[in-house]
Amino acid sequence: MPSFDIMSEVDQPSLRNAVEQANRKVDGRHDFKGTSAKIEHADKLLTLYGDSDFQLDQIKTILLPEMTKKNVDVRCLDYGDVQKISGNKVKQEVKVRVGVDQDLAKKIVKLLKDSKMKVQAAIQGDAVRVSGAKRDLLQEAIALVKKQVTDFPLQFGNFRD
């Protein structure tokens, strides 16, 4: 029975390269000289440091194009609240969302069931497996999910006949 998986993954080496490139640009900018502006990368968490909210916004305007150049989807970022550190310095934690969370997985399964397509969808960990009798039905299911879920980066892989 043909099937495919709906998942969400981030290429960690590309993300690391984008963060390093953005840090180099921040270090080279004249308006950031002598400040604590930087980006730290730890597995699935980015931490932006700056002297003010304005600097954090400037760091984001440097980071996001770098991520786009490295083919890292910026929709996977989940911005936390801006926190004050010592004095007037601020930091912001940005989570890198990997995997399809349970709420989105349930939404995808419900979407496919409500569409009356002859496909079955099952949640398997942090992915959704969709199976059907024909490849054409699976391709229609992919098109439907791509059209309906636009706020989260999804990949369709593991396509089997």
UniProtKB/TrEMBL annotation:
Highest taxon in the source lineage = Bacteria
Gene Ontology terms for molecular function: nucleotide binding
Q: Does the keyword Nucleotide-binding apply?
A: yes
Q: Which SUPFAM superfamilies match?
A: YajQ-like (SSF89963)
Q: Tell me yes or no: is Nucleotide-binding among this UniProt entry's keywords.
A: yes
Q: Name the keywords, alphabetized.
A: Nucleotide-binding
The terms describing its cellular component in GO are: cytosol
Question: Which family is this sequence assigned to?
Answer: Belongs to the YajQ family.
Its function, per the record, reads: Nucleotide-binding protein.
Kindly provide the name given to this protein in its UniProt entry.
Nucleotide-binding protein DNK49_15080
